[in-house]
Amino acid sequence: MSITRRIFFRNSAMAVIGTSLIPRFLTQAAFASDSITSGKKRLVVLFQRGAADGLNIVVPHGEPLYYRMRPTIGIPQPNRGRASAIDLEGYFGLHPAMASFKPLWDSKQLAIVHAAGSPDNTRSHFDAQDYMESGTPGVKSTTDGWLNRAIAAEKVAKESPFRAIALGSSLPRALSGQAPAIAISDINDFRVGGKSSGPAVSSASTSFESMYAESVDSVLHGTGRETFDAVKMLKAADPAKYSPAAGANYPRGRFAGSLRQVAQLLKADLGVEVAFVDIGGWDHHVNEGNTEGQLANLLRDFSQSISSFWTDLGDLGEDTVLVTMSEFGRTARENGSRGTDHGHANVMFVLGGPVKGGKVYGKWPGLDDRHLYEGRDLEVTTDFRSVLGECLTKHLGAQKLQSVFPGFDFSHQDTLRFL
Amino acid sequence: MFFRRKPILTLAVLLAVSLPLTIGFAAVSKHKGAKGAAAQMDERQRASHVLNRFTFGPQPGDLEKVTAMGVDKWFEQQLNPGKIDDSLLESRLQPLRTLKMDAREMVEEFPPNQVIKAIADGKMAMPTDSSKRAIYEARLEAYRDKRDNKAAGNDKAAGTDAPPKDQETASDSPAMREDIRRQRAEARTEAARLAALSPNDKFNAILKMDPESRRVMLRGIRDEDPQQLLNGLSPEQRETLLALVNPTQVVTNELVSSKILRSAYSERQLEEVMTDFWFNHFNVFIGKGPDRYMITSYERDVIRKHALGRFSDLLLATAKSPAMLFYLDNFQSVGPNSQVGSGQRPQIRNPRRMDGMNGGPGIFRRNRRVGRARRPYPNDPNMAGAANAGQKQRPKRGLNENYAREVMELHTLGVDGGYTQRDVTELAKVFTGWTLREPRRGGDYEFNERMHEPGQKNVLGQKIKEDGENEGKKMLEFLARNPATAHFISKKLALRFVSDDPPQSLVDRMAETFLHSKGDIKEVLRTMFRSPEFWIPETYRAKVKTPFEFVVSAVRATGADVTEPAQLGRSLQKMGMPLYGMQPPTGYSSKAEAWVNSSALLNRMNFALSLAGGKMRGVSVNPAKVLQGAQPPQDAAAGIDLLARSLLGGEISKQTRDTVLQQLQDQDRSTTATPQLGTVAGLLLGSPEFQRR
Question: How many CB atoms lie within 10 A of CB A41?
Fold first, then answer.
C-alpha cells in the first residue's frame, strides 16, 4: 500500500519534470561533473540494530549503582589499563574497545548524547526500529521514513540520484518514501552484468533499462528508473579510483566495507546528501561480556570502522555530520544469563567538523529506582527526534521539521546545541 | 500472443456468465474495485494464479496440467501431500546424508571448532572410526596451525582455513598474492592427477595425503570447481572430503541445498510453500552457535511435520525444539526463586552442564572438570571472550525474557495483541525450566524442575497455578486459541498468498475458521481459497516475488537441472535473503517494499542473465524443456513469443516484447533466433513481468 502511494507521487512528479530519459540523465551527468558537492552539507546516519547496550558503551563510571546493577558485565572505572573505561569527563567513560573514538573526542569533533531515545514504551525490536525510522513513535500508519521526508521537504533544483543512498541490499525504512533513494550493496558491481562487461552485457543493460522505463508496473517502473540513472552516473564518476586515504585502516567486515564505499561515493562528488548504513548484532541477552566479549568485539568493529571512515574523509569531514542511533537501550541491571534484556534510553553519538564535541549532552537521569523507567531501564531525557532535528536544521539547513517529525513539538524541547 | 487473446476473452465472458455463483459473485461485487462479471479471472488465469500462489512458480507444462485437472481438484490434492508421489525429489536428496541425521549425529560426524578445541586441549577423545578420524585429524592440524600462527601474531597467514572475508584489507601484499597464485596452480595440477584415478583410489589417496599438503590442495581448488575430485565418490566419501576442509559447512550446505531442491522439484509444492512460511514465522538463525546443527531437525520434525496440521501442535513443537530454545535463549532462563536461581547448589546435576562440554554419551569421554570450568562457550565466535564475564564471582542465573516476548509478539498474538511488560515477565517465569541437555552436542529438550520458578503466575489475566511443565503447555494452548492469534496468523497468511494489503473481510473470515476449527491450518487455507477476495483481478499477479521466490521460480520456469544448489544459496545471499540467515526473529518480509530497490533489481537482472545464459555453476538450463517440444522458432518474434509462453505464461507486455525484439534485431539480423534463446530467456526472467507472481 505504502509503496503504491510512494510510486504514485514519484510518477506524478516525473510527469511534471518530463519523461524523456536521456535529457534527464544528461543534466545529471553534467551536474555531477562540475559543482555538486563543493560546499554542500552531508549527513551520515548509522543505525545499530538489535538495541545496543548504551550503558556499557558510554559508561557512567561515576555512578556506584551502575556497578551494583552489573556485577559481572560492568566496565571497571578508568585508569586500570586496557581493562577499564576510557575516561571522558570524570563521570562517563568510553568502553575500552572504543579507544579509536578518543582522539575524535579530544579534537572536539565527537559529541555524545546520553539517555536519548524514543518516548514510546515498546520493547519490540521491530516496532521500535520502525518508530525510530518512521520518525513517528507510536504511530504505525506512517508509510515513509523521516530521512526521506527530510530530503523531500527540501527541494533542490537538480537532484542527483545519489542524493539519498543506503548501503545494503535493501532500502531501509528511514529512507522509504516519495523522494528518490537508492540501495547499493556493492558499488563495484552496481550495474547489469555485475563485474563482467562486453557488448552482450551492455545491450542487455539497454534492454532492461527500456523495459523498466516503459513498464506500466508502477512499483517496478520507478525503482528501475532510479537504478539505471544511478548506474550511469556511477560509471562516469568511477568511484573505484578513490582508495582509502593514508591512515584509514578499515577493519574487515560488512560495516566497514559499507562505510568505505560511502567515503568513495562522497569523494567521487556524486551529490550524496544523506547516507544510511546499519550494523546488526547488538541484542546481547546472553554472555554480553565486559571489557572483552561479544559487545567488546562488536564495539571494536563499530568504532574502528567509523574512525577509519573519518580519517578517510579528510577535509570532507568539515561539511559532514554523522549521527548514530539504536532502537532502545537495555535493562540497567544485567539479567540472569550475564546479558541484558530490552530496555529504554540509549546513547547517541554525533560526529562531525561542525560539531561542538568533547562533551556529553543531555540530562543524566541516574540509575536509582526512583528514576529508572518502569523500575528497570534508563529513562529517556532527550527525544531522539530533537537530536536528529538539530542535525537537520543546523547542518543541512532544513526548514520544515514539522513535516519530517509530524506531531513532535520542537518548541517544548531544549535544543542541545551540539551544532 | 495476439492470436491467443481472442479465444481467452471469449472464454472469460462465457465463464463470467456461467460461473459467478460458484465463486460467490455477490461478495465480490461488494469488495471495492471489483468490476463485476467481466472482471473475473478466466480459467487459464485461475490456473496461473494458484500456481503462482501455492507453488514456487509454474514449471513448463504445469499451466496446462492444472487447467486440465481443474484448480479445485489440484488444490485439494496439494492439501494432502502424503498422497503425492515425490520419489524424483527423494532421489535428488538421497546423497545429502545429514538430512536424515539428528543434531547429535551431525556434531559427531562433522565436528564444530569447539569439539576440535576440546580434543586439542585433551578434554575429549578422538573417535575410532577411520573416516571420522581423518576429519578430526585434519581439523586438529588446522586448529593447531591457526593457534600457532596467532601466537606468532600472524593471524592471516596460511593455516587459517576460514573462507576469506568479503573485504580484503589493503595490506595484502603482492608477494603474498603471488604465493597464493603459485599454490593454487600446484593444487590444480595435483587435483588433476588425482581426478584421473578410480573413485576409490582417489578417495584413499586423498585420505592418505599428509594433512598439510592435502589442505593446501583442497584450499587451492576451493574457489574453483571441486567436482573433478568429487565425481564418482559415494555420498559419504564426498562428505568426508568436504569435511576435511570445513565440517560445519557440510551441514549448512546440505541444509541449504535441500531447501532449494525441495522448493524447485517437490511435487508437494504447497507443503514446501507452507514449510517456508512457517519457518519464516517461527524464524531461527543458523549463525547462532549450535543452531547450525539443530535446524535440519527443526525444519524436518517440527515445521514440515505440522505445516498443514494444527497451529497449536506447531506452536508447542517449536517451543520445545532445541533450535528455538537456543535461538531465543529460553534454555538458560532460570526462575529467580527456583532451586538453581536461589543459589541452592545441586548435588549431582549442575545447571552449567547445559553449557554442554561435559559428559554425555557418544564417542566422547566424560570430563567433570570441563563442565565446572567457567568457559561456557569455548571457541564459539558468537560467544568469544564472554568467558571472562563470569570469572570474578558466581552470579545468580535468572530470568531471560526473550522467548516469552517473541512468542507473544511474533508467534501468536502479534505486537498489538494486548500484552504488557508484566505479562512478558510472568510468561518468562512460566517457561523457566524448558531447557536443553547439552546444547553444544546437539541438545535434547528437557524440563528441569529445579530451574522452574515456583508459585502462581499471572499472564494476560490468566491465573496459572504452579504445575511445572504443564504451565507452559497450558499457556501455549491459551495463546494458540486466542482471537488475536487467529487474526494475526490469518493476516500473515493473506499477506503471503493474497496481496500486500489483503481485504479485511477475507482476513476476518479466515480468522473465524481458525477459531472454530481449533487452528486447523488446512481449513484456514480452504477458507481463503474459497473466498471471492482470493479470485478478484486485483489479486492477480499482485505480489512481488521475494528473492527466494524469484530464484526458485526462475529455476522452475526454465526446467533447469540444479546439481550444485549451494550456488543458488550464494546468489540469494547477494540478494539480501540468505537462507536460514535472518538474524532477528521477525523473519523476512513478504511485502514488495522490502524487496524492490536498486540493488535488488540489478541483482535479479544479473541472476536472470547468468542463469539463462548457462553461466551459473551447477545449474544447467535445458532448451528442449523450455520449448516444451515445440519446433525451434523460425524468427526472433516467434522465439520471443514461444519463450514468453513458457516463462511468463504468455503474459508479456507490449513494451517488454518490443524491447527484446529490438535487441535481437540490433544484435544480428542475419541469424535465426535459436542461438539467442538464452539471451531472450535472460531478458524475460529479468523483466518486470517475471518479478511478480
Answer: 18
Residue B287 or residue B504, greater confidence: B504
Q: Are A323 and A388 in contact (CB under 8 A)?
A: yes
Do the beta carbons of residue A404 and residue A135 sit within 8 Å? yes
SS3 of chain A: the string is: CHHHHHHHHHHHHHHHHCCCHHHHHHHHHHHHHCCCCCCCCEEEEEEECCCCCHHHHEECCCCHHHHHHCCCCCCCCCCECECCCEECCCCCEECHHHHHHHHHHHCCCEEEEEEEECCCCCCCHHHHHHHHHHCCCCCCCCCCCHHHHHHHHCCCCCCCCCCEEEECCCCCHHHCCCCCCEEECCHHHCCCCCCCCCHHHHHHHHHHHHHHHHCCCHHHHHHHHHHHHHHHHHHHHCHHHCCCCCCCCCCCCHHHHHHHHHHHHHHCCCCCCEEEEEECCCCCCCCCCCCCCHHHHHHHHHHHHHHHHHHHHHHHHHHEEEEEEECCCECCCCCCCCCCCECCCEEEEEEECCCCCCEEECCCCCCCCCCCECCCECCCCEEHHHHHHHHHHHHCCCCCHHHHCCCCCHHHCCCCCCC
Residue indicated by cell numbers 529512507: A175
Under an 8 A CB cutoff, do A127 and B415 touch? yes
Contacts of B631 (CB under 8 A, 6+ apart): none
Window A:291-320, CB contacts with B under 8 Å? 291-294, 296-297
Identify which of B392, B577, B598 has the shortest CB distance to residue A183: B598
Measured at the CA of A242, the angle between CA A241 and CA A246, to 5 degrees, comes to 130
Rounded distance between C-alpha atoms, residue B277 and residue B282, angstroms: 9
B284 vs A contacts (CB less than 8 Å): none
Interval B289-312: pLDDT, tens: 899 999 999 999 999 999 999 999
What letter would DSSP give residue B299? Answer: I
Contact between A403 and A140 (Cβ < 8 Å): no
Q: Cβ–Cβ of B167/A256 closer than 8 Å?
A: yes
C-alpha cell at B169: 584489507
Position B39 scores a pLDDT of 61
In DSSP terms, A321 is beta-bridged to: A43, A352
In this predicted model, what pLDDT tens digit does every residue of B90-122 receive, in sequence order?
A: 999 999 999 999 999 999 999 998 899 889 988
Classify strands A182-184 and A164-167 as parallel, antiparallel or unpaired: parallel
Where do we find the cell 539505471? A228
DSSP B435: E
- Of the candidates B632, B389, B436, the one whose C-alpha atom is nearest the C-alpha of residue A295 is B389
What would the mean pLDDT of B472-500 be, rounded to a whole number? 98
User: Distance between CA atoms of B332 and B406, rounded to whole angstroms?
Assistant: 16
How close, in Å, is residue B246 to chain A by CA atoms? 21
Half-sphere exposure of B407 (CA within 13 A, CB side): 36
More confident residue, A418 or A412: A418
Q: Give the mean model confidence (pLDDT) for residues B162-182.
A: 57
Chain B closest CA to A181's CA: distance in Å? 9
Contacts of B244 (CB under 8 A, 6+ apart): B134, B135, B138, B139, B206, B214, B215, B218
Distance separating alpha carbons of residues A66 and A55, to the nearest angstrom: 9
Q: How far separated are the first and last CA of chain A, in Å rounded?
A: 38
Which residues, 6 or more positions from B151, have their beta carbon under 8 angstroms from its beta carbon? none
- Which triple of cell numbers denotes residue B225? 570447481
Do A159 and A36 touch, CB atoms closer than 8 A?
Answer: no
- What is the rounded average pLDDT for all residues in chain A? 88
What's the angle, vertex CA B689, arms to CA B685 and CA B693, rounded to 5? 95
Question: pLDDT digit string (tens) for A210-264?
Answer: 999 988 888 899 889 889 999 999 989 888 889 999 999 999 999 999 999 999 9
Cα gap B432→B451, rounded to integer Å: 6
